[in-house]
Write a structure and sequence with these properties.
Layout (H helix, E strand, L loop, with lengths): L5 E6 L8 H10 L3 E6 L9 H8 L18 H7 L2 E7 L1 H9 L5 H8 L4 E5 L3 H5 L1 H12 L3 E2 L20 H12 L8 E6 L4 E4 L2 E3 L6 H12 L3 E6 L11 E5 L3 H11 L5 E4 L6 E3 L18 E3 L3 H8 L5 E8 L3 H11 L4 E6 L11 E2 L1 E5 L2 E4 L3 E2 H14 L2
Parallel strand pairs: 1-2, 1-3, 3-4, 4-5, 6-9, 6-11, 9-10, 11-14, 14-15
Antiparallel strand pairs: 7-8, 12-13, 15-17, 16-19, 17-18
Bound molecules: cytidine-5'-triphosphate.
């Protein structure tokens, strides 16, 4: 939720300063306004011209504007900002911040800052591990500053990779999450996502084209808003990185059913986004089936309906959300499913909308509930996820 947010970006003298361009691009793309304040050493690594071109604002680095002697007011900046981000932040700047050494515009801005401050340290491992740096970071954290650090590797001392600046998209995501409404704190939400694979023999299966992208976007959105998410995922190549997402990997509809039915009693809501195979081969061949004869029959038997089962288990304080993918009579079919599976609302995708569904990064949905129908524009799946979770959060 960075839309309309005003961010002061402090840049210091680290080789990672070039990555500030990517941070600016990410912040602006998310709808934020960015004002750069750079230290003298920072200017050795990246030029103010590049930065002002990206932010569409003059870069501030001196106490006085060189030409006319006008003040650059750090106090005004401190009041203007919704957040200050210092990225990259060197060991030297950390030390000055921790001790109030106000010898440049960036530190005076920091000392006047009324908004939350985020720090992305950047230095080599020896400097990072030094007790002085560690003490400064502890001190700054105790003042309420937020650190955004690179995920460490898993080698050697546990410090591997430490000190390296976090990736720009990770930094932008951390700020974005900070401004996200935290309306789902304390809620447990179950999600099913992706396709299911129904085995024919050891090397073949019956499956479908679901990529899982919509379900994963929903899981991220719920977690960002404070929920604990249980994500029961069919076979997909997607990663889920949020620490509040607990992922359970399954392959078949039966496995997905077992995981979902087991988790649902502890949940406040379930969102059933998976494209579950309605049928599976009656028996799975133990060995690879050979090509014999001109035709081949696979006898299919029905899979359990996870949605219908959860609909029956549902208590009055639980919510259940389903998806429907229809090619014809969409509204009537969706209405029928709403009743039949005891959903609180159903998200309707129509295959008639080009460039949506399955492998696409965009989706166009309608939400059908007991109180009526809402149609939405075609949007990226993460924005669609926000609309869906807004609807869920608004239900009492
Ligand atoms: N669903 C489920 N378990 C199944 C089948 C479907 O949980 N075995 C869920 C889907 O995740 C989705 C909703 O039910 O949220 C609707 O799925 P869909 O396949 O469209 O519904 P069906 O009842 O299978 O209807 P259809 O007659 O269109 O196949």
């Amino acid at each position: 939720m960075l839309r309309g947010k005003k961010i002061v970006l402090g840049i210091t003298g680290s080789i990672a300063a070039y990555k500030a361009c990517l941070i600016i691009r990410g912040l602006i793309k998310a709808g934020a306004e960015v004002q750069v304040v750079i230290t003298p050493a920072g200017k050795e690594f990246i030029t103010p011209i590049t930065l002002s071109a990206l932010t569409h604002k003059p870069v501030i680095s001196e106490f006085f504007s060189q030409r006319d002697g006008t003040w650059n007011s750090h106090v005004d900046l401190g009041l203007w900002a919704d957040a200050m981000l210092i990225a990259p932040c060197t060991a030297s700047t950390l030390g000055k911040m921790a001790n109030g050494v106000a010898d440049n515009m960036l530190i005076t801005t920091y000392l006047s800052m009324k908004a939350p401050v985020f720090i992305a340290p950047a230095m080599d491992l020896d400097m990072y591990a030094h007790p002085s740096t560690q003490a400064n970071m502890e001190r700054l954290a105790s003042f309420g500053n937020h650190f955004i650090e690179a995920e460490s590797g898993f080698l050697a001392s546990g410090l591997e990779g430490k000190g390296r600046m976090a990736e720009p998209e990770h930094i932008v995501a951390a700020l974005d999450e900070f401004f996200e409404p935290k309306d789902l704190v304390g809620k447990n939400i179950l999600l099913t996502a992706g396709p299911t694979y129904e085995k024919i023999d050891p090397v073949r299966f019956v499956g479908n084209y679901s990529s899982g992208k919509m379900g994963f976007a929903l899981a991220e959105e719920c977690a960002r808003r404070g929920a604990d998410v249980t994500l029961v995922a069919g076979p997909v190549s997607l990663k889920s990185s949020h620490p509040r997402i607990h992922r359970v990997n399954v392959e078949s509809a039966q496995e997905m059913y077992n995981a979902a039915v087991n988790a649902f009693p502890q949940m406040d809501a379930a969102i059933l986004c998976a494209a579950v195979a309605d049928f599976r081969p009656e028996s799975v061949a133990e060995e690879k089936i050979k090509r014999v004869g001109q035709t081949m029959d696979i006898h299919l038997v029905p899979n359990p309906d996870i949605a219908a089962e959860l609909g029956m288990m549902k208590r009055s304080n639980q919510k259940l959300v389903g998806f429907a993918l229809e090619t014809n009579d969409e509204e009537q079919n969706a209405q029928n499913k709403l009743e039949k599976k005891n959903f609180d609302f159903i998200v309707l995708n129509s295959l008639r909308n080009e460039g949506t569904c399955f492998k696409s990064d965009e989706n166009q949905i309608s939400i059908i509930s007991h109180t009526g129908r809402k149609d939405y524009e075609k949007k990226p799946k993460n924005e669609v996820a926000r609309d869906i979770i807004d609807e869920l959060a608004s239900m009492k």
